Structures are given as C-alpha cells and as structure tokens.
Amino acid sequence: VQLVESGGGPVQPGGSLRLSCSASGFTFGSNWMHWFRQAPGKGLEWVSGISTQDGTITSGDSVKGRFTISRDNTKNIMYLQMNSLKSEDTALYYCVIEGGPGHFEYWGQGILVTVSS
Asked: Is the backbone of residue 41 left (phi > 0), alpha (psi -120 to 50) or beta?
C-alpha cells in the first residue's frame, strides 16, 4: 500500500488549499481514511475521517465549517478542501488508512501546509 499526498505549500491567512491523497495497492470501498496533522513542536492531531464505503464524515472541532473531506472511489483519491486557513493550521498533513477500528495502519509521507502572511 502506498499513499502519496499532494497539494500543500504556502498560503496566506484566509486562503484555501486542496490536499489530495492518492492510494495504490488499496481498494477504496471498505475502509475509513483520515487526515492527521502535526504542527511544529506539537503532537499528532486527528483532522477528519471519511468512510470510503458510504461517505460518512467526521471532523475535529478545530476544522469544522472550514475543512471538507471527500473521496473519489473511481480514482482511489481522498481530498481535503481547506478554506479560511489560519496560522494555526500550519502543519505537516498525513493521509492515513484505518485498517480496523482505531488501527491506523498505513500512512503517507506527509505534506507541508504553511499559513503565513
């Protein structure tokens, strides 16, 4: 299984970015997938999750109303649309496959999002 994130980079406060996670060696349709992030000097934070089976979504309070997770099962890609970005959203963002309940089995290499004026 390989997960590759893309779409990160620098952005000004209030701006938007869309992250993509392309999965190979894994078939969408049965597992949950998630976005985690780690800000400089801080611990890992769960951001949002989506069922690749039925599209059920859950999101953390810090991103609700600003970030939207989605997936395209035909392309094996998961997305994270990030709007109204704040400096505190600066972090390394990881794409993750949940192999079983609470078992975050496969991780991407991470992609950096930097929100700064």
From this structure: left
CA 44/CA 65 separation, integer angstroms: 21
C-alpha 117/C-alpha 112 separation (Å) is 16
Contacts with 29 (C-beta within 8 Å, 6 or more apart), sequence order: 52, 53, 73
φ, ψ (nearest 5 deg) of residue 33: -125, 155
**Helical H segments across the chain, by residue range:** none
Q: Is the pLDDT of residue 5 over 90?
A: yes
The amino acid occupying position 18 is R
SS3 88: helix
First-last CA distance in the chain: 37
Q: Report pLDDT digits (tens) over 48-73.
A: 999 999 999 999 999 999 999 999 99
